Structure formats: C-alpha cells, structure tokens
Amino acid sequence: MLEPDFECPHGCDANGFLFDEERRQAYPCSCREERLRRRLHGDMEASVGRYAPPRFQGLDWNALPLSGIAEQHGAAATVVRRYAGAIEQNVRSGRGLWLLGNKGTGKTTLGYYVAQQARATGMSVLTRNTTDLLNELRDSYKPDAQPTTRQIIDAITQVELLHLEDVAVPRPNDWVLEQLYTIVNRRYEHNKAIVFTSDTPYGAPLDPGGLADHIGERTYSRLMQMVGDPILMTGADYRLTVGA
To answer: Could you give the count of Cα atoms lying within 13 Å of 189 in the half-sphere of its Cβ?
Structure first.
C-alpha cells in the first residue's frame, strides 16, 4: 500500500491502480509516480531523522526567538525571509543558503525556520547535525546496522532539502573529508538544495574561505556554487546573554 491517507482525484485504489472494467485489467494511475516518490521520501526521512527538536518547532516572526533575531540581525532575517517566501522555487532549482557567524547569533534557528517552511509546502526535508550524521554513517558500517549506509546515502541524495547544522565542527581527517565530499557532491550532481550553518569564534573575522581549509577545496567549491555568498551574522552569544 502506497499511502493510505492519499485521496486520488481519479479514484484509484490504495496501490495507485485503476481498473478497466471492459478489459478486466488493472493499469497504473497517473498519480502513482508522485505517490511512490512521496513514500520513498517518507521512508528515508523516517530512517535518518526528520522532525525539528521542540525548541525549533512552530517558529514565528511575531514571537521569540525569530522576532529577536529580526531585531538584532535585520539584514540576515530579510534574506532568509525572502528565500523562505519562495521556498519551492528556490529548493526545486537547487539554490541553498549558508548561514555563517558567531555562536549564539541565531543561525540554527533560521536554518530550522527554512526547513519548517519547506515541510509546510509538502517537500521532503532532512535536518541533521553534521557530527551526528557522520557518526550515523560510521555506525552504519556495523553488521545489521539500521539505517544502512545505502539508506543514509539515498536519503542524503534524494531528499528535496538537506539542512545541515555545524558543518565546520567535525575534526577533519581523511574519512571525514571523504564523507563530506560524498554528501555535498551527491547533492551537487542532482541539483539538490542544501541549507547549512557554520560558526566562527566571537571576535574572529568572518572568513568564508576558512571553511575550505576545514572541509577541503573540492567540497567547498561545490558548496559555493550551490549557495552563493554566505549570510553573515556577528555579535555576542545570545544564549549566554539571556542565560539560556
């Protein structure tokens, strides 16, 4: 059964087939391909992790933390709101976002907001902390691991929007660099959008090129073509300021 809650306007059955009474023969409905795609994305999202943590659910510009981010980082908020306002067009064209800045400036919240808006349109989204995703890939090599390595890579490749947090955090070694390249290159080859965040220590200059030293030149080059210039966010750690 493809999707029990799906209501087909053509009246096909739960498996996406119509029945020709004269020929006494079943044939696939025009909705079947779309339903297969939606089920595939749903299975992948379930296998790797889908929903936002409670802190980042129900984000609204009229309430904290988004209202505070808009007040302190108006330029960044404007770019993100504009991107999210055309979320389907941006994601389906493979255009992503890079949020770069100091810790605690709201990058993660804005990333989750974009993911929230994409899900609201019905698009499939994977949100992962980069370190967690790399750990899941490492664990997937174990016998009988679930999800399998192939499931994770398929999810990374096929999901419509990939939202990665803290791309610059994992310590680079040959294995990490190769996995990051695989993740980014798969998305790059399939023209799939990535939204990601990366930190710069407070007081240090925001140097987008510094990410190349951390994730490798070939990975960085592909990312830059996919996301364009980073959205810069500077300032003190809001979490420490409010004691959160």
So the answer is: 9
